[in-house]
Each structure stands twice: as structure tokens, then as C-alpha cells.
Protein 1
Amino acid sequence: MTKILSVNAGSSSLKFKLLNMPEESVIAEGLIERIGGSLDQDDNVTIKFNGEKHKSRQAFKNHEDAINLMLSQFKKFGIVDNFNEIKGIGHRVVAGGEWFNKSVLINDEVLNKIERLAAYAPLHNPANAMGIRAFSKIIPDATEVAVFDTAFHQTMPKENYLYAVPYEYYTKYGVRRYGAHGTSHKYVSEQAAKLIGKPLEELKMITLHLGAGASVTAIKNGRSFDTSMGFSPLAGLVMATRSGDVDVSLIDYIKAKEDISDQEMLNVLNQKSGLLGVSTISSDMRDLLDVYDTNDHAKLAIDMFVGRVVDYIGQYYFELKGADALVFTAGIGENSVPIRKMIIDRLAFLGIKLDEDANDKHGVETKITTDDSKMAAYVIPTNEELEIARDVQNLMK
Ligand code: ADP
């Protein structure tokens, strides 16, 4: 039994899960928010252990402070007696560029590359690197592994990852589609293959990661073949506050009309668009579903969200020349019975049939189509932390 810690260091937050491997059981998990910022009235530290939630409120100058507190709480609650019990640490890293097509053991060269890739993910990679440096200092003996959000998508063929812009932008500046949510798409495809009872290498799937951020991936023989996110996570589907695909000519036009800067324009597309922008009332799918029948804007936002998902399913179904399974995951994909129904009902003309009772189940891996459906659909709760811990364990061998 080995204790492995999965770490997701965001720009101002630290999410973590301590697992026993290879049992894959969770020992403790938690979230620290408002790192480097000011506190409000709410608790910003949560640790779950032994079925109890411990909450507190505390200011942190930086990630190292937050990690020190997390570890001191591990001792206080008896989660570990000695930090050296934590044998492996897996760090989620957002951008891996073309340098990383799989998870790797961290050394100085890897850390240096993660920092250089900050140009691709300015908010995330510096925070990820900070987290890595802090842990190396505090638990120097643990094996540290970097798990990249983009790595899974490195198998895409060139015709799917290039943009039709001058080729030299790719060779000179790395302009291309990198994708995101790779750890989640990989995890749910592996779990779906187990449910289907066939090797992943023999399967074609379309995986739908529908959360606040959302992306679709076409998986061919177990590998990413195409994905909806692009150079950055702004592309593709309609998301909670992100626009997804837009005609880029709009950018200059809106900037001029609204008299806003490049940065403000990016902020509009990232923070004020998507479900929030269209509905004008909320970025949360639950709020919109509550008023679907009474609020025209909410209905429009949901119809656009569902429509864009169906567009991508159609595109990938053709690209893959058919698929064995459709997989739903993340906040909306795992929890929203009506959204799954709207999506699958739009595929009825392909002979895909929803099993309404199965679609009503919650929190479990389930097939939600009938046995005579032309293509199966599954709900698979994602578990990026477990996928990270699996990679750490494999690299420790
Ligand atoms: P992320 O990790 O991208 O922040 P999550 O995967 O946690 O997001 O998904 C969060 C989103 O899931 C919320 O914004 C909310 O819209 C949606 N969500 C959660 N539960 C439900 C539900 N029961 N019905 C509809 N949407 C839900």
C-alpha cells in the first residue's frame, strides 16, 4: 500500500487528494482557496477525512504557505504520522506543448520546460510550477510526476491539430490546437472500455466533458484523434462563461464598437460569454434549467449549448466513421438528466435510444441507452486525481 498525493495547483487555489494505491481508495481530500489574495467572510480551507469535513479560514501569502498548512493539517487529523509516508506526488500541469506526450518524472529540465510553457497558459503553468517547487522543498524524498492536460491529445494527426494559417506560425511559434481536459477524456475512455468489455485499443468513442469548461474528444483506438478545444481552452463548445468557437473577425469589430482593449476583449470571451452571456442571468446550468420553460434567454442559451454539443458529435461521428460509444462526464455530463436527454434525443434519427430509467441514476458508471440502441452512451464520473495517481504509480515502478 502506497500513499500518493494528487495535486492541482490553480492560480489562487490548491486542490488535493491523498490516495492509497494500488487500492485506489481515497484517504483524504481538500481544497484551499484565495491563495495570495484577501479573505472574505467564507471559510477558504476544506479538508475531508474519515467522513468529516473540516473547514477553516486563513490567509496565505503563496502556494508554499498553503501546502505547509495542508501538511500540518494532515498531521493534526492523523491522516499521516510522517510526511515521508507520502511516496509519490502527481501534479496536474495545464500546458505541456509538444514537449510532453505523456506523464513524466519531474527533474530540473522538466520544471524549466513547464515554466517556459507559461506563454501557452499564463494563469496556470506558473502556479503549477510553484506547487512543484514547494513540494520538492517540503517532501524532497517523494517521487514527483507531472501529468499534462494536453498530453493525451498529442496523438492527433496533423490535419486535425493545425489551423489553416501560414505554416511558419506553427514552426516558429507553436501555433496549433493543443486541446485540454486530456486526463479526464483519457480516464473516462478507459473506464468505458472496462464497462463495454473490450480493449480500449479496439474502440472508437466520443467523450463529452461537460463542466463549467467543456470539451468533446474523438477517440480512435484508444487515442485522441480530434478535440474541440484549441490553442487555448476558449475554443469549441458553448461553456459556462466562455464563448467557444466564434468568427475571429468579430473581435476587432466588437473592440471598436465597445472601445475596449485586447485584454478586455479576451475577458469578455472568457468570463462574460457562453451560458452567462446568452442567458444574461447565470453561468450555472442548474439555474438555467430551472427556468427553461419560462425564460426565453435561458432556453436559448441551453438550446445553443445542446446544439453545439450535437454539432461536434456529428463532426466526430463522421471523422471516426462511426463510434462504439458516447461518454458523458463532468458537472453537467454526470449530473444533468435533462441535458443528456436533450442531446441523445437529437441523435434519435441515427437509431440511438435513451433508456430513461438508467438516465435517472446518479453518481455511478452507467449505460444510459437501450440494448437495441445503434450506439451505446454511458455516464462515467470523471476522476482526474485517480488518473494522476495511476500515472505516478506506474512511473514509480
Ligand atoms: P469545472 O471543473 O469545469 O469547474 P465541473 O465539472 O465541476 O466544472 O462542473 C460545474 C458545472 O456543472 C456547474 O457550473 C453547473 O452548471 C453544472 N452542474 C452541476 N450539477 C448539475 C446538475 N445537477 N444539473 C445541471 N448542471 C449541473
Protein 2
Amino acid sequence: MSKRVRIKTILEGDYLGKDITVKGWVRTFRSNRFIALSDGSIIHTLQIVVDFENFDEQLLKRITTGAAIVAQGKIVESQGRGQHFEMHADSIEILGDSDPDKYPLQPKRHSMEFLRDIAHLRFRTNTFGAVFRIRHALAYAIHKFFNDKGFVYIHSPIITGSDAEGAGEMFQVTTLDLANPPKDENGQVDFREDFFKKETNLTVSGQLEAELGALALGDVYTFGPTFRAENSNTSRHLAEFWMIEPEMAFYDLEDNMDLCEEMLKYLIQYVMDHCRSDLEFLDQRRANEEKSKPQNLRSPMGLLETLQFCVDNDFVRITYTEAIHILKNSKPNKKKKFEFVIEDWGADLQSEHERYLVEKHFKKPVILSDYPKEIKAFYMRQNEDGKTVAAMDVLFPGIGEMVGGSQREERLDNLIQRMKEMDIPEEEMEWFLDTRRFGTCEHAGYGLGFERMMLFVTGMTNIRDVIPFPRYPGSAEF
Ligand code: 4AD
Ligand code: MG
């Protein structure tokens, strides 16, 4: 049998009149005559027309939803609506049966919760096919963006001995026997007997290692999995998520914002240019979802429209102080509609505040900068006012925080003093401080949450549905 041709290639190519072979999985088989075949290469199925008179009845019975088949025949112009081409089958062979009474995926609408429970099979649905093709394209676009700009991709470690964010919500890594751990003179667990001879954890961020790279290679980025044991059971948090962390020598905060805005627009444009049919499907899917919502909760724009809007418009840039002013005077704050009412300067912004700013007030992506130092990490550059640091968060409609970053504190004394104030032991950070001792310079960087970006470009509403096998409190299946 000739080599198989992918359905995407057939639908986009010049195969009319040609005799070819396709392989894939049956989505539906109507009237004992029309097979909708998917092979995952594109959202669309190929219609295969079967003259049932010429086929064995036993074989036809085995063409069921989910079965893997190989079909061979001629590509002809389609008589039906909805597709240009179809295959007129000369032969069909079953590669793998799928018992219709047991196969969990039927050609009907399944809930996202149900599909999450069968995440091993959900790749086979239209929605997840589209989502994961886009996930691939987005990952590729990230590498392309940075590669084209001359950045060096750094693989930061996954097991580390440091807590980059100082957040303390880490997954511990150990080979010690938890039921019977070795103890030291003081009765404490003796980590000198552990695999690494010290306490280790899964990384929460590759930033500190990226800084080491940037202060030698200039422009670098990481793109890898990061782990947080925060007990956030929300539609925006995962315990294992992927982060992109560029770090640039000789960049100040404004350079950092410029790069970040350019990157986000590039990524959105890339997906629009390369994932058209998947986006159209998801656009339609979201439009249907919106119809079931009350009028006042519907999004003003469709998915494709939202993406285009973000590419076409400058992001708003304001300081934290300006944001607090807007929020304090906002209707929901005055009417105490926010769960956390903003009283004073210094308050940490919750996602309800971030979303008010982007969705209600500005109706655009917003870059907030210069936050109070108390609510930000130790490594951020201290501003002249003594109160704020050169931090930036990028907020997106429907998402909230998409990116967090800052200009870094490059002055050794300031950094050490801030670490003291925040109880970060200097002796554990000597390697980091060495960059400030030898050839320190202005530098900046940020972290993009890959799945938050995926939520935005796909219009999906739960972060658990944009990563193949989500990890969250109480769940580590597959
Ligand atoms: O704001 P965060 O915590 O910043 C850092 O980790 C810095 N070291 C980044 C840097 O400057 N290099 O996290 C960065 C981004 C957030 O804006 C968010 O998009 C995403 O990572 N993020 C999460 N995504 C999914 N689940 C979680 N639990 C996340 N926590 C953060
Ligand atoms: Mg943050």
C-alpha cells in the first residue's frame, strides 16, 4: 500500500483525481456510507464515501467511532456541503477496533469536567486537538521569537537548592525514607544523608540562574516547567506550569516592557497566522458558550476579534500608585463590591482588582509598574523614593496577571540590605551575589506563564484544559 498522506496535506494540496492512502480514527460513520476520518493533522475530518454494496458487511460493522482504519481510494470533488474534497474508498482495513458500547467518547458534547477525568482520551476531541496544536505552535513561536533576536536558550535546573521567589511554597525532593528519616545531633532530619547532601526542591522559577547567564551571554531565556505547592484551587493556577523567563543585560524597566509587549503581540500574531482553522473552531466554540450566559456577563468581543485588538493597540502603562488611585475611586470599591476593598496605598492587588483595571476601566492589556517593595521579591531594583521597586506586571483581559518581571537590583549593598530585611540567608546566595561583585550591570527580565498565554489565545476558561495532564491540589493522574 502506498505511503499515507496526512489529511491536512490533502485538504490544502492538489490531490484531486489522485489515488492515495489515509490512516486515522473514525469520528462518525453515517448511513453506512460516510466516514468522517480524523488523523490529528488538522481540525477538519476527511469524508470517506463507502459504496456499502462492495464491502463486506462484517467489516462495515467494525467501522465505529474511535476505530483506527486505513483507507485507500481516489480524491474527488465533494457533492455534499461543508467540504471541497472527499475520498471514494476502494479498500478499507481496520487497524484497531473500538467497541462502541465501551468507548467513552461519543460524537456528542461532553463536559470539560468529564473530559478532564479521561484526559488520556481527550486529545481525540475537536476542542483538545485544536488546543494542543496551538500549544505546539505557541511553544515554537516563543523559540523563534527569541532565536531571531539572538537570545540564548538556557536550561535552568529543575531540582534546586534555592527558593527563587522567596515564596516558600515548594515541593520538596528527597530520597530519604520518610517513615524513618535519619536524625542529627539535635533530633532534626539529617539532610546530609540525603541524595544531594542538602535540602532540595523543585524549582519555582529559573530566573536566578537566567541572571547568571545574562551577565555573561547578554540576552538569554529559559522555557521549562516550574512548580508551586500553593493551595490555589482556581481556574488560573497549576501546581506544575511552564514559564518563559527572558533575562537581558543592559536593560532597564522600560526596555523590559518594550520587549515584553513586542513578544506578546508577536506570539498572538503568530498563532493567528499559523493556526487559523483551529482558532476559527475555538472562536465558534466560545461564541456558543457565550450564548448560554446572561447578556451582562458576555464578552464584548469574540476570540479572533480580541486577539486582533491586542495586536493592534498599545498596552496601557501606569504605575501601581496610579492604579490604586483609580481603584480607590472605582464604583465597586466605593460600593464595597470587591471582596478585598482597597483602603490604602500598599495593598496587594487581587485578581478582582487587576481584572477591573483591564476589563472595565481600560479595556486593554495594562502594564503596571513600580509596586511597593513590601509586596515584591527581594531581587527587584529599589527606586529612588525608598518605597517602591522597579517591578512590572502585565495584566490581560479575561486572565489577569500574564507576566511578572522587574529590573534587577544590580547594586551589591542594596541587594544585601534587602536580603537582610527579608531574612534571606546570605551564605546560601553567595553564587548569586557574585554577579554583583564581579562586573555587575543594569539588567532586567520577566516571566510569562505559558498556560496563562494559552488561555488567552485559545479562549478556554480553565487552565486545566490547556495543559495535557494538569497537576493541581488533589490531582496527579496519568
Ligand atoms: O509573577 P511570578 O511569580 O514571577 C516569577 O516567577 C519571576 N521569577 C519571573 C521573572 O521575573 N523572571 O510568575 C510569573 C508568571 C505569572 O505572571 C503567571 O503568568 C505565571 O507565571 N504563574 C502561574 N501560572 C500558572 N499557575 C501558577 N500557579 C502560576 N504562578 C505564576
Ligand atoms: Mg507575579
